[in-house]
Amino acid sequence: MSSTATETALQSVPALLARNATRYPSATAYREKEFGIWQHWTWAEVAEEVRAMAMGFLALGMARGDYVAIIGRNRPALYWSMVAAQSVGAIPVPLYQDAAAEEMAYVLDHCGARFVVCGDQEQVDKVLEVQETVKCIEEIMYLDKRGMRKYDHTHMNWLMDVQAEGRAGHQRFEAELDKRLAELNLDSTCVMLYTSGTTGKPKGVVLSNRNIIETSKASAEFDRLSPTDEILAYLPMAWVGDFIFAIGQAYWVGFCVNCPESDQTMMTDLREIGPTYFFAPPRIFETMLTQVMIRMEDAGRLKKRLFDNYMEHARKVGPAILDGKPVSAADRAKYALGNLLVFGPLKNTLGLSRVRVAYTAGEAIGPEIFDFFRSLGINLKQLYGQTEASVFITQQPDGEVRSDTVGVPSPGVEVRIAESGEVYYRSPGVFVEYYKNAESTASTKDAEGWVATGDAGFFEEGTGHLRIIDRAKDVGKMADGSLFAPKYVENKLKFYPNILEAVVFGAGRDRCVAFINIDLTAVGNWAERNNIAYSSYQELAGHPKVLEMIQNHVEETNASIAEDKMLSGCQVHRFLVLHKELDADDGELTRTRKVRRRIIEEKFADLIDALYSGKDEIYTETEVTYEDGRKGKIKATLELRDAKVHKVAQKLAAE
């Protein structure tokens, strides 16, 4: 069979698995670190594991069109459960493992999940808790046996027992399984992924095999991915990015998926694996940079001088060398020495020594953070995508990478800008529909297949690169008519390692104000070095020296914003440091850590009013959710501060 004919036959993820088991039978497909030891499975072994699991699902009565919820951290067996569900004609629905039981209840009920696969006892307990209201769940399976002995197993099974039953009954189930596998085609549903619910209830995004396979093929060719590439699968399995990288591209290309032992060991496991293909949202790169800066603050004088000297040089020539642009021999020589003494050891410490392609997306990344990693010689690029697009809308080609754009349309994707400034796209990756929500489907995707992103942007003249300004609903005008784009300011503020999160307000107002969350790790380290005692986040956040430090960061950011003619009106006039960290459990962030701006505006309306009224301080009480689910209140008196605004911006805005 020719390669073209072979590709034509690849109409589902299980078909890709079968091809890989034949083409790369002894190549490592998955690794997982368990009890400190890396376990591994070849493609041939994975195919056998998935087939046994699929027959076990048939033994449990899994039918075509059933929805199968998968909840847990990244583990090979949970990825296999998704492919096994697809194999029998069912539809996997991964959920965020850190979601509260009530959040899970909505998704489980909405999709009508008959089966749930849980990673461990914690997830089983959440499912059992919601079964009082969610009546559709019939069978629960779990992967980790710890703590599960005394549960009622009438409708509960260890996943390995399900596989064992599938193997034992293979003569009964093989013909039915093969029949169902043969029925799968490009239009069969591959997965259903729920949106993060930034503005309302999460929506179930239905993605077909065509969406996933066509997108994976095009994006893999764009970056020349090969079977020798390796990724670390550590991001939530419920997120479309993880699905496209760890299932879509991995199965299309045949590269290895590595699963860390736990969230706590992720950075250690990253160093051990040394992936060649790496994806992380901006917050991961922000955290990495924060850790680097903390370590350098603690370093000796000579080491610090060495770091500062070579990093200054790297910022000047590193990106140009990475892009293959002309750089003098002297500059190349100094950069090579810096790589030997500073950049190389630093990349090794971060686990990024072998990275050939790295991407960031999900939110805009601060340009200073982006440029820092590229200056080290790491090929970090930006992509712009959505769940509804099967991730890819635009990507940055090698040699055309900049911090202020998100690149050009991905292969096979058309992008246009509406008169309102909103970005629209259509592609083979465009979702089928929102499950049980025809109204939202119609308002998002028109009859010609064009999808409204909800983001405002424009194409640059000459380069054809797309620039995203902000969420269309968040971009507004100040009272004087100047442009208001809060995310632009927030990302500049978050460049500082001491600032974890920022929320800027100002639409329709005469000036901007901001809430700041400090980074407890970075500021705590700074406090320790400066002999500042504190007993809690709240106490440290309200310390006069911390407020002074944050004020300096805000004013430096204002100076930077003043240089941007279009957005200079967005300087922060007043700010406060919040007495608590914004938290997904309190509804202030989504599970992908995006700010729920409207909820924060409502919840902290008294603080916003105080910033605009000119008060110097305000007493406030805020309800919080503790780790065990209990509710409590935090009481605090917050200091409100003025920040220096640069007149350059006012002059530019008036021109």
Characterise the protein shown here.
The chain is α/β, with parallel strands linked by helices and 655 residues long. It has four domains: 277 residues, Rossmann fold (3-Layer(aba) Sandwich); 78 residues, no CATH class; 82 residues, Luciferase, domain 3 (Roll); 179 residues, ANL, C-terminal domain (GMP Synthetase, Chain A, domain 3), CATH 3.30.300. The protein is built from 23 helices and 29 strands. Helix 10 links the parallel strand 10 and strand 11. The N terminus and C terminus are likely disordered.
CATH fold topology of the largest domain: Rossmann fold
Helix content: 40-55%
Termini distance?
A: 67 Å
Strand content: 15-25%
Helical stretch count? 23
Largest sheet properties? 5 strands, parallel
Q: Indicate the overall shape.
A: globular
* Assigned CATH class of the largest domain: Alpha Beta
Q: Return the average pLDDT rounded to an integer.
A: 91
Q: Mind telling me which CATH architecture of the largest domain this is?
A: 3-Layer(aba) Sandwich
Radius of gyration: 26 Å
How many strands appear in the DSSP assignment? 29
Count structural domains.
4
What is the H level of CATH, i.e. the homologous superfamily of the largest domain? Answer: ANL, N-terminal domain
Please state the structural category: alpha/beta
Strand order of the largest sheet: 4-3-5-6-7
Poorly predicted regions: 1-6, 649-655
